[in-house]
Amino acid sequence: MPRRLPHRIAGALVATALASSAVFATDVAVGGAEAGAAPAVHSTAVRSTAVRAATGHTAVVRTTASAHLTKAQRVRKAQRARGKRVVAVAKRYVGKARYRDGGASPKRGFDCSGYTKYVYARAEAGRLPHSAAGQRSMHRMHRVSARKAIPGDLVFYHGSGGVFHVAIYAGHHKQYAAATPRDGIRYQRIWSTRVSYGRLG
């Protein structure tokens, strides 16, 4: 068994190692920036290695990559987590719930906007009105391009009279939807080109 260092000596070695590694970590960060890499992860690895070399023990380095996320990156991470919750709830009712005009529960059945409203509520993703057009026109409903849409976003179908149908985006040009009285809740392809995508802000 390796001999344990006195706390005072070990602490001094850790401090020295961290201070020394900071210079090298800065070099890594600069080099990584020139190469297009992510310096935060390298910095954490350098510090951990330096402490281990100085003391013979691996220290718990609390500086993690998530601590260095920008605000925009944190927002995207939260949006994707919310989308996963939405999809997890949406898929529960595929083939198990019927379509019903005005319906907004598994027991009574769902219409298209009743389904999205219920799923969002159960997934704690936000409160939606019971109307496809109403959901599209919400102040907090932000339009996103098809390229930037993520699972859990909403798919709005447009006709000559405005928005007439809504579904939950599943990714890869697929959706979860309260489709028709015959089909009930379905996992299906997006069946029109006249659609837009919305994300609740």
TrEMBL record:
Keyword Iron in the entry? The reply is no
Single biological process term from Gene Ontology:
proteolysis
Q: Which GO terms describe its molecular function?
A: cysteine-type peptidase activity
Q: Which InterPro entries match?
A: NLP_P60_dom (IPR000064), Papain-like_cys_pep_sf (IPR038765), Peptidase_C40 (IPR051202)
Q: Which UniProt keywords apply?
A: Hydrolase, Protease, Signal, Thiol protease
Q: Does the keyword Signal feature in the UniProt annotation?
A: yes
Matching Pfam families: NLPC_P60 (PF00877)
Signal peptide feature range: 1-25
Q: Which residues form the NlpC/P60 domain?
A: 80-201
As for family, the record states:
Belongs to the peptidase C40 family.
What is the name attached to this protein's record?
Cell wall-associated hydrolase, NlpC family
Q: What species was this sequence derived from? A: Jatrophihabitans endophyticus
